[in-house]
Write a structure and sequence with these properties.
The chain has two helices and five strands; from the N terminus they run E-E-H-E-E-H-E. The protein has 94 residues and is of the alpha+beta class.
């Protein structure tokens, strides 16, 4: 079973679980991206990780794509993949 890199971070007092997905995720439809995030949220909870899952991926051109609950999307203006990579502190089986 593949393992995904996980960055458990606290941003503005909110516990987030940033999970980096393959760049091919960018080509998925929104419903598939949403389903993947929901499934990873369940896996994170089962693994004992506390926080809200946010999926991130390389969107090309130096941009980071992400999917989070709407109330957290404003947190990601200053976050990029370098931030995610610097904060990787675990793995999650997909």
């Amino acid at each position: 079973m593949p393992e995904l890199d996980v960055a458990q971070v606290k941003i503005q007092g909110v516990d987030l679980i940033l999970i980096k997905l393959d760049a091919a995720h960018a080509r998925q439809s929104f419903p598939l991206k949403k389903k993947a995030r929901q499934e990873l949220q369940q896996k994170a909870k089962s693994a004992g990780l506390a926080g809200t899952v946010v999926t991130v991926w390389d969107a090309g051109g130096g941009n980071m794509g992400f999917l989070s609950p709407p109330e957290y999307s404003s947190f990601f203006g200053g976050i990029n993949l370098a931030y995610v990579a610097a904060n990787i502190n675990g793995k999650l089986s997909s």
